[in-house]
Every structure is written in structure tokens, then in C-alpha cells.
Amino acid sequence: MPGGAVRVLLLGPVPYSLALRVQERCVGAARAAALGAAAAAAPPPPQPPQQPLVLSEPAEPVYAWGLRGAPGVSLAAKLREKGAGLAAVRRGGHVTYHGPGQLLALVVLDLRARRLGLRGFVGGLEEVGVRLCRRLGVPAATARPPPLTGVWVGDGKVAAIGVHCGHYITSHGLALNCCTDLAWFEHIVPCGLEGMGVTSLSRELGRHVPVADVLQPFLHCFQEVFGCALVFSDEPEA
């Protein structure tokens, strides 16, 4: 896959809304850089500019849905009663859950600069999740054909993937259940897939797997799959 540097922003446990705000600033900066290069009619650089990979752990329970999966009024009220927040986001996919014990990876890349198609990008995220799970001791982890996007262990989804792409700039990405309380998924049809379940690394490995223990293996797998250098930064914009 195309290379180039990726800036890693480690936010730690933060509200989902804050991670989204950081992502949107990154998207704005990436889009401005792409438009500036296009206006200057400059040839593409030999290496794409650095773009961010925003990693966080949602600090509070939130149900989020994409373009096709808004919950009805009664379900929304029920979810609020459970103490969860609600968020409509610009990505593909139906309603899913984000919360403590989950690694949230928001990926902002210029696909045109990296000469990468959207399906290849999604497939790359799936490959990252599969390699990570297998590296941690879950050899049965696999990707499946659409519409079963994500990373699966049997009939349980361990990582959900939902992305948005506008003007070749991606946003959103992958949510991996590390030690997530899976009971939160019982109140919805996760990702709109009837009859399918969810799982976590902790469940599959039979031990507690916190997000902090998964960060470095995840970054190694991301670097392998996308063939990129990683640069760590505290700032959401270059």
C-alpha cells in the first residue's frame, strides 16, 4: 500500500464528542492542504504529507449512527434512559456503541495523494484489525465480504468499521472492543446486522485486555498494512 508519514495523536480516555472535534479540525486542515495543492497545480509530492491517526478511548457510553441508521424516537428515549449519549455522525453504517474499554481509531488520509481507493482503504482497516487480533492470540479473527464489514471472530464482531470520504479525505475509521462492557450492545441491533453478535478481545482471550495494552500492537499493524512511518504529535493540526 502507499506509504508516507502518519501523525499519531494519542488522546487517551476522552469524551467521544471531543475525539470527533479533533478529527474535524484534522479533516479541515487536510482538505485545505489538498485544495491549496490543487489550486497551485503542483505535481503530487513523492511522499504524501503527514495526516493524522487519532486514537482515543471513549470515556462515556455513546450510541452513534451513520447516514442510514438513525434510531426511532422510542429507541432513542430508551437509550438515553440507560445513561448513554446519542450522536449522529457523517459516516457509513447503522447505529453502534462506543464506550470505555474500546479503542477508537479515527483515520484522516488523503486517498488521492496516497493513490488509494476507498474500498482499498476499508480493506486496509480490516487487515489492521485482523493482524492485530491474530498477533494478540485470536487466530480465528477474519474479515468478511460486504455487508459484513469489520473484523469477526465467528459470528461476533470484535471491530466495527465505518468511514466517510469527502473530496478524497477520509474520516472516522475503526472501533475495536478491548474490554468493552458488551451488555451495552444488547439494546440495539449493532451495525444493523440482525442475528449477528459482538465480542471483545477480553472475551476471546479469557482475560482483561485494557486499551492501553493494545495501542502499540495496533500501531505496529497499522504501520505494516499502510506502509507508513509514524510521527507522534500532541497537536491536532500541523
UniProtKB/TrEMBL annotation:
<feature type="binding site">
    <location>
        <begin position="91"/>
        <end position="98"/>
    </location>
    <ligand>
        <name>substrate</name>
    </ligand>
</feature>
<feature type="binding site">
    <location>
        <begin position="173"/>
        <end position="175"/>
    </location>
    <ligand>
        <name>substrate</name>
    </ligand>
</feature>
<feature type="signal peptide">
    <location>
        <begin position="1"/>
        <end position="19"/>
    </location>
</feature>
<keyword id="KW-0732">Signal</keyword>
<protein>
    <recommendedName>
        <fullName>Octanoyl-[acyl-carrier-protein]:protein N-octanoyltransferase LIPT2, mitochondrial</fullName>
        <ecNumber>2.3.1.181</ecNumber>
    </recommendedName>
</protein>
<feature type="binding site">
    <location>
        <begin position="160"/>
        <end position="162"/>
    </location>
    <ligand>
        <name>substrate</name>
    </ligand>
</feature>
<comment type="pathway">
    <text>Protein modification; protein lipoylation via endogenous pathway; protein N(6)-(lipoyl)lysine from octanoyl-[acyl-carrier-protein]: step 1/2.</text>
</comment>
<dbReference type="GO" id="GO:0009249">
    <property type="term" value="P:protein lipoylation"/>
</dbReference>
<feature type="site" description="Lowers pKa of active site Cys">
    <location>
        <position position="157"/>
    </location>
</feature>
<comment type="similarity">
    <text>Belongs to the LipB family.</text>
</comment>
<comment type="function">
    <text>Catalyzes the transfer of endogenously produced octanoic acid from octanoyl-acyl-carrier-protein onto the lipoyl domains of lipoate-dependent enzymes. Lipoyl-ACP can also act as a substrate although octanoyl-ACP is likely to be the physiological substrate.</text>
</comment>
<dbReference type="InterPro" id="IPR004143">
    <property type="entry name" value="BPL_LPL_catalytic"/>
</dbReference>
<keyword id="KW-0808">Transferase</keyword>
<feature type="domain" description="BPL/LPL catalytic">
    <location>
        <begin position="46"/>
        <end position="230"/>
    </location>
</feature>
<dbReference type="Pfam" id="PF21948">
    <property type="entry name" value="LplA-B_cat"/>
</dbReference>
<dbReference type="InterPro" id="IPR045864">
    <property type="entry name" value="aa-tRNA-synth_II/BPL/LPL"/>
</dbReference>
<dbReference type="InterPro" id="IPR000544">
    <property type="entry name" value="Octanoyltransferase"/>
</dbReference>
<keyword id="KW-0496">Mitochondrion</keyword>
<dbReference type="GO" id="GO:0005739">
    <property type="term" value="C:mitochondrion"/>
</dbReference>
<dbReference type="GO" id="GO:0033819">
    <property type="term" value="F:lipoyl(octanoyl) transferase activity"/>
</dbReference>
<feature type="active site" description="Acyl-thioester intermediate">
    <location>
        <position position="191"/>
    </location>
</feature>
<keyword id="KW-0012">Acyltransferase</keyword>
